[in-house]
Design a protein that fits this description.
- This protein is α+β, with helices and mostly antiparallel strands.
- The protein has a single domain, classed as Aminopeptidase (3-Layer(aba) Sandwich), CATH 3.40.630.30.
- Helix content is 32%, strand content 39%.
- The protein starts with 5 loop residues before the first helix and ends with a strand.
- Bound molecules: coenzyme A (COA).
- Coenzyme A binds next to β3, α3 and α4.
């Protein structure tokens, strides 16, 4: 991901989340030492992205989304695999994430890619929905 991608990234982000990240979140990810943001391109256009943070033995998926019109085609799976490879190269042993308990598509994506549930944060999102904690051993 580079700064020129941010218009497209923000458009997808707004279509994908009820409380989307703002531009400054992504700008921070572009410059932060342990952050690794990537876009998926199709014919030169941004169709999805993933933001990975990797710090010593633990890495975390902070954000992942795919343009609504291009979902169900394996874009998120490819982004997740790529992020997993980068986390491993950075020395991570564990890749972790949090997902809203009502987000069936994302939970299915993660379970399909080897993540297991490790915990629950009750009423974490807007004091209403639970956050499911998931992780995958990447060693
Ligand atoms: C979750 C999201 C990133 C998945 O992106 P995608 O590119 O459509 O996912 P893929 O096509 O790579 O699917 C990979 C696997 O995820 C699962 N999956 C994806 N979408 C699914 C859906 N709507 N219902 C059930 N399972 C789904 C499937 O197991 C699929 O594998 P399969 O097709 O071999 O069965 C996408 O729906 C999205 O952007 N949602 C809004 C943002 C979001 O919720 N991000 C996650 C925050 S934690």
């Amino acid at each position: 991901m580079v700064e020129d991608d941010l218009v497209a990234v923000l458009a997808i982000e707004q279509l994908s989340f009820s409380t989307p990240w703002k531009r400054e979140h992504f700008v921070h990810e572009l410059g932060a030492r342990h952050s690794f943001p990537f876009v998926a391109l199709c014919d030169g256009s941004v169709v999805g992205y993933v933001c990975l943070m990797s710090l010593f033995e633990e890495a975390q998926i902070l954000d992942i989304a795919v343009a609504p019109a291009l979902r169900g085609l394996g874009v998120a799976r490819d982004l997740l695999e790529y992020a997993t490879d980068v986390a491993r190269q950075q020395g991570a042993e564990l890749l972790a994430l949090e997902v809203c308990s009502t987000n069936g598509a994302a939970i299915a994506l993660y379970e399909r890619n080897g993540f297991v549930r490790t915990g629950l944060r009750q009423k974490y999102y807007d004091g209403r929905d639970d956050a499911v904690l998931m992780e995958k051993n990447v060693r």
